[in-house]
Design a protein that fits this description.
The protein is of the alpha+beta class. Helices cover about 30% and strands about 15% of the residues.
């Protein structure tokens, strides 16, 4: 297995804020968990690896959200998890 396009950090880092599982990111973005895993594998979404576990930083998720096609949520606002608690109108 090669990781040519993947952006996965394997070094221990200082505290980096909120981390999400691939399942949590899939629920937030309303996609399948395998889609999130594919984005990580291709390097479209950065992730941090802790042993065998993959975690996505809140900052990386927010940056990734900026390049996604914009879809409105039912309430017409971005989820607070992606905006640092600030609703976007």
């Amino acid at each position: 297995m090669t990781s040519e396009a993947s952006t996965v950090v394997t070094a221990d880092l200082a505290p980096i804020g909120t981390l999400y599982t691939t399942s949590e990111v899939a629920k937030l973005l309303r996609v399948n968990q395998r889609t999130v895993q594919e984005w990580i594998r291709t390097g479209a979404l950065a992730a941090v690896r802790y042993g065998r576990l993959l975690r996505i930083r809140q900052a990386d998720l927010a940056a990734f959200g900026e390049v996604l096609p914009h879809r409105t949520t039912p309430a017409g606002t971005a989820p607070a998890e992606l905006t640092g608690g600030q609703g976007v109108e």
